Structures are given as C-alpha cells and as structure tokens.
Amino acid sequence: MQLPDSFLSTIRKAFREDGEKFLAVLPALIDEYSERWELTDVHPVPNLSYNFVAFAKHQGSDIILKIGVPHRELKSEIAALKLFHGDGACQLLESDEERGVFLLERLTPGTMLSELENDDERTHIAAGVMQKIWREVPQGNNFIQLTDWFDELKNVRPQFDGGTGPFPREIFEQVESFLPELFADKDVRLIHGDFHHFNILHSQRGWLAIDPKGVIGPAGYEIGPLMINPWRSLSDGIRPALSWTEGFKVQTERRIEILGERLGWEREKIIHWSLAHSVLSAWWDFESDLDWKYSLNCAKVFSELK
C-alpha cells in the first residue's frame, strides 16, 4: 500500500521516534487487524494527516479502520467514543486501545458541516450536536484535562525572557486575567475538545461528531474551536465588500447570538472562551512551526468585542 509522502512527513514530524516505529509496523498492523476483524477492500482516505484512516468493508458493510500512534489523546478518543455510544457521535465498533487500532461506523453521505453555505444553519446544528455528546465526568477517568492544555501557555513568557514574543501583550494579559474565572465554572463535563465544522458529518442518523479528543473541563471551552472555523473561510452570506476582519466580526456576532440563545450562556462567557482558545491555538501552531497568525487574527477580533 502506497502512502502519501505528506502523511509520512506529518507522522515523523509530530511523533518523531515513535512516529518512525509506527510507520515501520503499520503495514503489518493493517494486515493483522484486517484478518482479525474480517476486513476487505481496505484503502486509505485521500486526506490522511495524523492517523492512518481507511475505508473498508466488514461482512458487506462499509466501515472505517483507524490506526494511530498509541498516545494519550488516542486512548482518550477511544474512551470518549465508548461513553458517547453513538449518541451524537459516530459509533465505535471495535477497539484495541493499547495498540491504537479501532473500527468506526462509516457516516454516509459524510457531508461536513463546513460544506453548508448558511452559517446560521451551521451554528444551530453544531449547538445541537455538542449538547448531545456532553457527558457527566466519569469516575476514575484517564481523559485529557483541559487545565493541562492551558498550562502550556505558562511556557510563553520563559521563552521570550518574560515577554509575550509575537503575541500582543494586551491580548495575552487579557487571557491570563480571566482564565481563573473560566476554570471556576462548575459546569465541568466530558466534552469533545476539538469540536468544529470538519469534525461534524451528516449521516443517515443525522449530524454526528467524529474524532473527539475526550477532554474533561468546563463545557464553555467547546465553542472555542467552532468559533475560529471553518479555517480561513467565511459564510457566503457575508457581504463581499467587507474586509476579512469586518466579515469575521459580523459572523462572530451572529454566532454569539445563536449560541447564547441555544446554550443559555452569557455573551462574555462565549467571547472569553473564544479568545482563550484562539490564543492557545496560536501558541500550539507557533510551537509546531505552523500558520499561527490566523488564530491570532481571530483573537484580535474577539479581544475587541464588548
């Protein structure tokens, strides 16, 4: 099986030595689990990134085979899918958590939420799906803790000799000031953690979430990734005469109104979680030498909202 160079490069860059080991055993893993789970017609999806994902057939039914480098996020994803049990999310069919291999329901037609043109419609659909998948915090869990993610922002100042580097000081200090209040929110749940328009697909069972991170934290964080996506695009309903910043602000204001109505959250809460996530996203991308400026541009818009 010929795998794209871009996929090989991503795995090596993201997982280093573990990534090399994974790529070395991947062909054998595909063969082993194809035999164990009686899979046929296994062929990779066209947009491989951080995991090997393939279309396959099992006893005549279309399913998805997913294999990843075994690590905390992958184990958390499998555990979350077990708890979601197909309610608001794709169904987990089989799994081997320790080896990072699992089978998933194939969502047909698989239309991504990002493909809808009307952003109001997209936002209403997203609000409905996120409410379906939230769960009470399970006992004795090993899920990702949202506090661990935001603790990574503590690395910014040491890297820039006490400053904030390319991140505007005013915005960074704004996030630092309200993070304790955000984490004091008692509405702590098991949430998706990477909830955006490319991880919400249409199926015969309705709109469902895929690829959950499985995160324990205040439910408010869930809207963060949604607010800065679809990446770099704006609804076709935004007037073409507007600049990107103006258009993004118009879209953001409308989303705040819809999410506030659907979720019962105050405007400030939505803005603060949007700003906090966009700064965290920019930091992650900066560390990974990716395009961090888009997330920062989103943060600038959020920081100016009152």
Question: How would you characterize this protein structure?
Answer:
This protein is α+β, with helices and mostly antiparallel strands and about 300 residues long. It has 2 domains: about 5-105, 2-Layer Sandwich (Phosphorylase Kinase, domain 1), CATH 3.30.200; about 110-305, Alpha-Beta Complex (Aminoglycoside 3'-phosphotransferase, Chain: A, domain 2). It has 10 helices and 11 strands. It has helices at about 5-35, 70-85, 120-135, 145-150, 155-160, 170-185, 225, 245-265, 265-285, 295-305; strands spanning about 40-45, 50-60, 60-65, 90-95, 100-105, 110, 145, 190, 200-205, 205-210, 215-220. It has a 5-stranded antiparallel beta sheet, sandwiched between helices. Strands 6-9-10 form a 3-stranded antiparallel beta sheet, with helices on one face. A hairpin with a 2-residue loop joins strand 2 (about 50-60) and strand 3. The relative contact order is 0.11.
Give a nutshell description of this structure.
With 306 residues, this protein is of the alpha+beta class.
